[in-house]
Specification:
The complex is a heterodimer of chains A (about 350) and B (about 160).
Chain A lengths: L1 H9 L2 H38 L15 H10 L11 H17 L18 H22 L3 H32 L4 H6 L14 H14 L11 H4 L9 H26 L10 H4 L3 H22 L5 H29 L8
Chain B lengths: L2 H9 L2 H14 L23 E3 L14 H5 L5 E7 L5 E9 L8 H5 L5 E3 L14 E2 L1 H22 L4
The chains are: A mainly alpha (about 350), B alpha+beta (about 160).
Chain lengths: ~350, ~160
Amino acid sequence: MDFLTDIWMWFPEVLRVLVVNGLLIVAIVIPLMLAVAYFTFAERKIIGYMQVRVGPNRVGPRGWLQPIADAVKLMFKEIIVPSRANRYLFRIAPLLALGPALAAWAVMPFTDKWVLANIDASLLYVLAMTSMGVYGVIIAGWASNSKYAFLGAMRSAAQIVAYEIAMGFALVGVLMVAGSLNLHQIVTAQAGGIQQWYFLPLFPLFIVYFISGVAETNRAPFDVAEGESEIVAGFHVEYSGMAFAIFFLAEYANMILIAALTVTLFLGGWMPPFDVVPFTLVPSIVWFCVKVTMVAFFFLWFRATFPRYRYDQIMRLGWKVFIPVTLVWITVIGVFRFFTPYGHWFQ
Amino acid sequence: MNALTKFLKDYSLIELLKGMRVTGGNLFAKKITVYYPEEKTPKSPRFRGLHALRRYPNGEERCIACKLCEAVCPALAITIDSTEREDGTRRTTRYDIDLFKCIYCGFCEEACPVDSIVLTDIHEFHFEEAGKHVIDKSHLLELGDQYEQQIAQARREDAPYR
């Protein structure tokens, strides 16, 4: 053992840091990819069940190998680049979509100890990363040289930009209450059971944040970017094979990310719902995963329930409802905290 | 509706929650899916599937080459050639049905004066080589021999309603 430690210490420090961080990144990305694969399966199963069907049940026992089969199929398919498409941008766009969706996980506090980069302004970092995702969409739409892809990209971009603002304001509320930009500190500030979680004092912001998150990820009922009847599949209509799969991965990774952020910011992160014995014995990571799964379930529930919004209604909801609601609630928080004796409601 | 109740109704998301209750309830509802290759739904005796040519119980083929089926076929899927057999009866030398042209309307069966051409209830069939979609007389008679029990049974069940 000492011998191995000696060899390890013999490597230059830069290399050691690189290796350790590389392994940690793999340890986050691999489970995330598996989660994405099985999220697609869960989506098909749950929506099927809600429509009184049974969903995929042929590949493997009760369909459990379906996502593996889908992944293998996509890997063996040809990536077709349309004629007169911008070949370079066409190939780089899926990576621009997936990169930020994965990079945002670097600051996610999975448990008290498990966080890859516990940086001070991690919330700002997450906001920056999620905003970057729109470039992948726009570039994909533009580089495809297809009017459907371009229209889809335009719709998607306008929608993401509109809801980004409401989302940002919702986060401002969290910042005011938590007094920190660090996700880890935001979670620790919610310690002490369900009554301390921020979704109670910030209930309107919680709802706005989650609905904006659904709109950000272009999910039903805000999925005009892929309105099948009008513009086929939207920005990724010209993509096939693995390039398409990467967009798919990005969309689902983003959904899980939004769910994880909602849990971190409003639902107490890795904290158990009650600070008493049977609940505190369960490991933090289990609480985190259970909460993320529950929030992610709502994405599927929404998709199974709501018809698609009309485009102008999406814009109206974003600009004329969510932004005013968040502004009002931020004002309410500010006034209560600093000008009334009820400030502790928002601590 | 006055503005205040509309405001409250909109912002409480009550309509959306109602919708979610419906889908949420169905999540636990009993599924009505028929697991097709293992389970099958019942078929009517009038089901119109793959064709067959029948024989009389003594083994004589029923078809007398009257060509009524060929004449009535709206898709021109049937082709018949005929000749006189040694015993002086008229018989077909060729009876082809193009299954790609056929629209499974059942007119041939209705037109047939001797109940020779019939549509069985077989709907699970396929062709593995090009050209195999035209089935000839020997194939049709073979089908008729193989499924005679079923065909006769279906005709008996349907007879009271004809």
